[in-house]
Design brief:
By secondary structure, this protein is mostly helical. The protein has one domain. 73% of the residues lie in helices and 0% in strands. The chain is built from five helices and no strands. The two termini are 30 Å apart.
Length: 79
């Protein structure tokens, strides 16, 4: 339980920091042609990606991702 809270909070913190510094990240890494074409800006792609990481961190912290794991299910191999 403690591991889930720490890792979930860490993913949320990293995602929030990288969203905050997304403009500097674009300057550092350069522009992406596919993101420019479909999303308008490379920064939008970075924000969407890290927002997804934040959502996954929240889901992991509350144990939702553990419910989806077939390896932790008691019904593995049964019909």
């Amino acid at each position: 339980m403690r591991k889930q809270i720490i890792l979930g909070s860490l993913f949320m913190l990293i995602g929030a920091v990288l969203i905050y510094y997304s403009a500097q990240l674009v300057d550092l890494l350069g522009k992406n042609a596919r993101a420019e074409k479909y999303l308008g800006w490379t920064r939008n792609a970075i924000v969407l990606f890290w927002f997804g990481i934040i959502v996954l961190g929240v889901l992991y912290m509350f144990g939702v991702l553990d419910m989806w794991s077939p390896l932790k299910s008691d019904s593995v191999g049964t019909f």
